[in-house]
Specification:
Shape: elongated
Structural class: mainly alpha
Distance between the termini: 103 Å
Oligomer: single chain
Number of strands: 0
Number of helices: 5
Order of helices and strands: HHHHH
């Protein structure tokens, strides 16, 4: 069947344009009414008072701007003081020293971690992994060294 008349169906974009146009005209109407009301209110105020309010506001804004600019130059930088790490005494929940086998087991885990890091740093592909680990956890090597030092101190202190 041949159609002789084309149907004039409106596309969705035309409807969206009409909605956007309606919203824009509503916003402009509200802005126009607000501006008219403000103009009436300003007209009731004497010219000298308007000038005084303008000068006070300008001075206030200049003072705030100057304070913000000068505050940027006078910013004091806080430097973290460096000090030695103080390690508390190792105790269990009962307040006594842990069993020596627990200390040895913990030390073995620390020793394995140090050995695996050392082996990583030997190969080129491992070197990349080692560098990424050091970047992600910058104090890891120091922590391992500190744990080994604590173990040695405990061993000297208790003679095991």
């Amino acid at each position: 069947m041949i159609r002789l008349k084309k149907s004039n169906a409106k596309s969705p974009s035309v409807n969206n344009d009409k909605i956007a146009q309606g919203i824009a005209s509503l916003i402009l109407g509200v802005q126009r009414r607000w501006a008219t009301w403000m103009n009436i209110q300003a007209g009731k105020c004497p010219a000298k008072l308007r000038g005084l309010i303008l000068i006070v506001l300008l001075l206030l804004m200049a003072a705030i701007g100057a304070i913000l600019i000068m505050g940027g130059f006078n910013r004091t930088r806080k430097v973290i003081a460096t000090a030695s790490i103080q390690v508390p005494a190792v105790t269990t929940e009962q307040g006594s020293l842990p069993d020596w086998w627990e200390v040895n087991a913990s030390y073995d885990r620390v020793k394995k971690a140090r050995l695996s890091l050392d082996s990583l740093s030997q190969s080129p592909s491992g070197k990349q992994r080692f560098d990424s680990l050091n970047k992600a956890r910058p104090g890891l090597n120091d922590s391992i060294r500190m744990a080994e030092l604590l173990y040695k101190q405990l061993k000297q202190k208790y003679g095991n």
